[in-house]
Amino acid sequence: MSSKPVIGITMGDPNGIGAEVIVKALLCSEIQSLCVPLVFGDAKIIEEAKRLVGVSNEIDVISITKLSRENLTPGRHDKKAGEASLLYIKEAVRFALEGRIAAIVTAPISKESIHLAGAKYPGHTEMLQELTGAKRVAMMFESGKFRVVLVTIHCALSDVPRLINEQKVFSTIELTYESLIKLFRIPKPRIVVSALNPHAGEGGAFGDEEGLHIIPAIEKARKAGINVTGPVPADTLFYYAAQGKWDAVIAMYHDQGLIPFKMLSFDDGVNVTLGLPIIRTSPDHGTAYDIAWRGKANPSSMISAIDVAVRLAKNKRDHNSGL
Question: What pairing do the DSSP bridges indicate for beta strands 248-251 and 103-106?
Fold first, then answer.
């Protein structure tokens, strides 16, 4: 029996690039040496993706539905595709909670398609939180350059100020700190918190969120023994973050953190869900409908996501074993 961890990979939206990037990623010799991949999807679609790519390597697939290439509408939102992508995730989570796989790597889903299928989740993160019963979660983006964790995730920019409060900022700092120790095995994490407003509010001249919510959260974290800096204006913070000054950046909203992250790590960035009882990673890109089923998809982020999943699963096991 192989001593390599079994990593579950969900196929994502069948109308997107999920199947293609999975097939391409599993050709990578490094991935083959790291783990035993198990795809949760549809065998017929994986076979079609193999033909598209022009390969014949064996891929273990747990077929969840009976979709085939003829059922797909590549590059389009679709109820059946949404239903299938939801079922792939649910089955993989069940395997992970039962300890049958060491981690889950999720290929991208279409939020519109899962909504057509009746799901109300804004995305993977909220769905995984409900399926696992996690009390708190956060979205981290990991790369070789730096890590970003978001206080608010998928919401209108106009809603961000009212969604930021002291407890939410503190909880994100605390969860990031705990995850850096447990999952990334960084014994003394250094964390920086971004301001929301230009110049960190300039003493209230450009907004009072820093004084009302962010600074009190940082002070509370420091009293808890966390090495945290901030709030630092976002226009300078990422320059220093990219040089490795901190182990993680806490950003206040989606684009504040992800524009600089993806500018530096578009092809190899990885999304990690913090706070779950299981390990979950994913590529940091979407379904890429514009190139779906054309053989043009880049598997780099999927390769990185599998690599990070293996590393985090080992780190979590070692941490729990006291190693």
Answer: unpaired
Place of tokens 């790590």: 265
How far CA 233 is from CA of 130, 195, 252, in Å, comes to 34, 5, 11
CB 277 within 8 A of CB 97: yes
Neighbouring CB atoms inside 10 A of 302's CB total 32
Type of residue at 129:
Q
Residues 159-203: tens digit of each pLDDT = 999 999 999 999 999 999 999 999 999 999 999 999 999 988 778
> How far is it, in rounded angstroms, from Cα 119 to Cα 112?
9
The set of residues, in sequence order, having a beta carbon less than 8 Å from that of 219 and lying 6+ positions away, is none
In this structure, what are the phi and psi dihedrals at residue 40, rounded to the nearest 5 degrees?
Answer: -105, 105
Note the maximum CA span of the chain: 64
Query: Taking Cα atoms as reference points, which of 4, 3, 1, 5 lies closest to residue 102?
Result: 5
Angle between helices 124-132 and 79-97 (to 10 degrees): 40
Nearest to 223 by CA among 162, 177, 161: 177
Q: Which of 142, 153, 191, 171 is nearest to 275 (CA)?
A: 171
Gap between the Cα atoms of 93 and 11, Å rounded: 13
Q: Is the pTM of this model over 0.90?
A: yes
Which two three-digit tokens encode residue 215? 């600074």
Model confidence pLDDT, tens digit, residues 264-322: 988 889 999 999 999 999 998 999 999 999 999 999 999 999 999 999 999 998 888 77
Q: Strand order in 191-194's β-sheet?
A: 61-63, 36-41, 6-10, 103-106, 280-283, 270-274, 138-142, 147-150, 248-251, 191-194, 228-232
